[in-house]
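Example record

The entry below shows one chain as it appears in the dataset: sequence first, then C-alpha cells.
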Amino acid sequence: MANKIILFDGECNFCDASVQFILKRDRQEQFTFASLQGEHGQKLLKQHGIASSVDSFVLVDGNQIHFQSTAALNVCKELAGAWKLLYGFIVIPKPIRDKVYKIVANNRYKWFGKKEQCALPSPETRKRFLD
C-alpha cells in the first residue's frame, strides 16, 4: 500500500476532477486514493481516530494526517511542474487558508454538482484506488 493516501468525497464533481488532476501530475505515482464514503476510506478514518462524518480532503502521509488546505498544499508540493510552487502558500496562517478552503468546500455541490455514486476509475488508473 502506498504511503500517501488521499481521501476524497466520491460524490463531488469538483473532488473527482481534483483526483483526475492529481493523477495526471503525479508522475511518480506517490498517491493512492480512497473515497470517504467507501469501505477502505471509512476504515482509514477509524484507524486514525477521525470521525467518519469528516467533510474534508484528507491526506494520510504515513502517520501524519493533513486536512483541508494543508492537505491540498502538501499534495501540490509533490506534483510535477509548477504546481509544487503553490506549496509556498503554506506560510499563510492556517485559519486564513482554511477559511478560503471552507468557502469552496461548502459550495462545491452548488457550484460543481454532485454524483449519485462514485465514478469508476479507468483500467489504467484502477490500481491507484483502494476502494
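Notes for this example: Helices lie at 13-25, 39-47, 68-76, 94-112. The chain has a mean pLDDT of 88.
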